[in-house]
């Protein structure tokens, strides 16, 4: 009790979502999916945004995969920041068209239907 006779009310309990439900919604990354992301980046130079859109993953997950392999020294790092905006847009559109065309073959490889990448 304070000098003015005011009593501090007890803390109001707030709603906390069940974190176990949220954690089970995470979809694990398959080894072949990880290998496909690295292969497409290494050989064709697809950007992080294009890979994220094609695989239905977040850009942060793709970036973590690429960053880990960059630190291992198995993936060369490309810096696209110095390119003009129009060049980036044209290249990005070309990459999206090309990857959408080949995505069915890559999905079959990721699911284990083939032994070699297309």
Task: Characterize the structure shown.
This protein has 118 residues and is mainly α. The protein has one domain (25-110). Helix content is 58%, strand content 0%. The protein has five helices and no strands. The chain has helices at residues 19-24, 31-44, 48-55, 59-72, 85-110. α2 (31-44) packs across α4 and α3 (48-55) crosses α4. The radius of gyration is 23 Å and the shape is globular. The relative contact order is 0.12.
Describe what is shown at a glance.
With 118 residues, this protein is mainly alpha-helical.
Secondary structure elements and pairings:
Elements: H1 19-24, H2 31-44, H3 48-55, H4 59-72, H5 85-110
- Distance between the amino and carboxyl termini: 75 Å
> Which range does the strand content fall in?
under 5%
Characterize the main sheet. none
Could you estimate the helical fraction of the residues in percent?
55-70%
Structural class: mainly alpha
Overall mean pLDDT stands at 80
Tell me the overall shape. Answer: globular
**Beta strands, count:** 0
How many domain modules? 1
Instruction: Identify low-pLDDT runs.
Output: none
């Amino acid at each position: 009790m304070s000098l003015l006779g005011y009593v501090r009310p007890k803390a109001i309990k707030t709603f906390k979502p069940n974190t176990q439900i949220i954690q089970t919604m995470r979809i694990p990354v398959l080894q072949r999916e990880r290998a496909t992301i690295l292969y497409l980046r290494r050989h064709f130079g697809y950007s992080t945004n294009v890979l994220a859109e094609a695989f239905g993953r977040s850009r942060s997950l793709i970036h973590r995969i690429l960053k880990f392999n960059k630190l291992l020294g198995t993936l060369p790092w490309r810096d696209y920041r110095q390119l003009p905006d129009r060049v980036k847009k044209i290249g990005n559109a070309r990459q999206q068209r090309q990857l959408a065309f080949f995505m069915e073959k890559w999905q079959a490889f990721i699911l284990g239907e083939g032994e070699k990448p297309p």
